[in-house]
Amino acid sequence: MVGMMKPPEAGILVRRLRTLGLDREEDQRALAGLIRHKRRLGRGQEIVDLDTAQNFAVLLTGVACLYKRLRGGNRQIYTFHYPGDLCGFHRYVLPEAEGEEAAMALSECSIGIIRYRDIDRAFEQHPKLGFVIWRVTMLEASILRERLVNLGRRPALERVAHLLCEQLARREVIGVSTSIVPLNQIDLADAAGLSVVHINRIFQELRKLGVLSDKGRTIEVLDKERLMSIAEFDGRYLHMGDALRHWEVAIDNSSDEGNVEDFT
Amino acid sequence: MVGMMKPPEAGILVRRLRTLGLDREEDQRALAGLIRHKRRLGRGQEIVDLDTAQNFAVLLTGVACLYKRLRGGNRQIYTFHYPGDLCGFHRYVLPEAEGEEAAMALSECSIGIIRYRDIDRAFEQHPKLGFVIWRVTMLEASILRERLVNLGRRPALERVAHLLCEQLARREVIGVSTSIVPLNQIDLADAAGLSVVHINRIFQELRKLGVLSDKGRTIEVLDKERLMSIAEFDGRYLHMGDALRHWEVAIDNSSDEGNVEDFT
DNA sequence: CGTGCTGTTGAGGACGATCAATGACGGTGG
DNA sequence: CCACCGTCATTGATCGTCCTCAACAGCACG
Q1: CA atoms in the 13 A half-sphere facing the CB of A197
Q2: Among all residues of chain A, which has the CA nearest to that of B137?
Q3: Nearest C-alpha neighbor of A111 from the set A46, A191, A172
Q4: Exposure of A22 by Cβ count < 10 A (0-12 exposed, 13-18 middle, 19+ buried)?
Q5: E-strand spans in chain B?
Q6: Measured between CB atoms, does A19 come within 8 Å of chain B?
Q7: Whose CA is nearest the C1' atom of nucleotide D26?
Q8: Do A236 and B96 touch (CB under 8 A)?
Q9: Among A169, A152, A155, which residue's Cα sits nearest to residue A202?
Q10: B78 near A143, Cβ under 8 Å?
Q11: Protein footprint on strand C: which nucleotides are under 7 Å from a CB?
């Protein structure tokens, strides 16, 4: 599969970067031309370290994650990747060896591969492209910060709810508007910093609240409003622009009246 | 204080960016020339949102943090800032409004102020400068990821130890080699996602282990080796280059022999 | 010499981890 | 077609970490 990508697949990347300001058609063409190879992966396969790491990947279809393995076998998932996301790009900017970080396919995935030297050239010829991709990386950082709040300060129920909201919102941005979150409880546990057992109990609670369906293995959100209010979800950190204003500030003001002023 | 900065203060920024690859003197001069104003702040003052946010800050002296306030008054500190760090720069790249994020001085600080339009121009004339600053932001993301592991998967003792290691290492990079961490228990608690009370108990444990001194209010590390081994600290995520190889991989292999292979 | 802010201590309880076992399901090969 | 296996979901019981509340002590500041 060498040669030019067919439009529909490179399209997801272009579409994504357009939402972050890549408006000139010329830049978009340059971007689309960067994907020269593609590859298919099954669940559990590593994405990064394909060759001698002189390239990185763009997720085209499927779900993946960036994670780190700790001594003892524990895994911390930093973030999930959806079509249009870059996998392993941070190594292009900051190349030194990075502990035990890796990216892994969580479902059947297809990825596009971009070589460093190709993007080197693209950045020289299309400075705007570089800036927009910088934005992509900053958006990822923004997501990381929110996840930090999640792990640091939210109890399990809200934490899981927040995670689910984020996945729905991010999939909606790229045009996937199912209410199904294509993950399993194990992945969620590793992202939420909770044990699988506890995730399972939280799920039962969410089902009892009518937020999740109880169809066996698929995670389906039945009541998005409720979910957002549990999570106190404010999707602004996803920088989705006007596309998705309805993801903003779903606040249940019932119980916090006087204490808002406490921190002056 | 309009006009050119005096060298020693802009110097900290140049020095910092040199460790990330800003080697051409011409670029360095351009960088130093960006700081046109400076300002002093006392503990607790906000750094970002100085004017109408058409600028960002470089921390020159003191300690600061980037954080978010949650409903209920809780605070999550994302990261601490030391001299040479950029505060609020992410808004330059990704300008949309960001929830309740802010940066705050944690001690007496002085900051340099850089206007967007000045750095716009600098990036055009010195593309390399832009790339190096991109690296700075990616380094921050790397720190965020490690903090995520910390909150998600490490128990309190290791978590606090890890946080302390990081602060020591980061201060060492910029030439501060005291064993004093210039923070208080409250700040540490908000960064570690623990309650102040629990932080205090962890501190007592660390003192009992001889790792921390028990001089009243200042946090002084007496046994860095021990601290690193408690935290299983591997400073590679800080990308400090060869400067600080001794921050790498301090592992106490005494108790995990057979189970390392468990996750194949 | 009060008044804050920070650090310290104690008691009690909640949240979430761990361990261990069982179920449900899909795929595979006989 | 069925037996087997691996993965993922579920359940119960127990335990420990960490939180909350509440009070007090020390120090720095005006």
Answers
A1: 0
A2: A138
A3: A46
A4: buried
A5: 37-41, 55-61, 64-69, 75-81, 86-87, 101-105, 109-115, 180-181, 219-220
A6: no
A7: B216
A8: yes
A9: A155
A10: no
A11: 6-11, 15-20, 24-25
Q: Which residues pair with B191 in a beta bridge?
A: none
Query: Do the Cβ atoms of A148 and B149 come within 8 Å?
Result: no
Distance of A205 CA from C21 C1′ (whole Å): 22
* Per-residue model confidence as pLDDT tens digits over A48-87: 665 567 899 999 999 999 999 998 889 999 999 999 999 9
Q: What's the predicted TM-score (pTM) here?
A: 0.90
Nearest C-alpha neighbor of B64 from the set B103, B15, B24, B19: B103
Interface of B with A in 176-205 (CB under 8 A): 192-193
Strand order from edge to edge, sheet including B86-87 = B37-41, B109-115, B55-61, B86-87
Closest-CA residue of B relative to A79 is B145
Q: Which residues of B touch A244 (CB under 8 A)?
A: none
Reported as a single tens digit per residue, the pLDDT across B67-126 is 999 988 899 999 999 999 999 899 999 987 667 889 999 999 999 999 999 999 999 999
Token pair 């002056």: residue: A264
Q: How far apart are CA A1 and CA A112, in angstroms?
A: 11
| Chain B CB within 8 Å of residue A158 CB | no
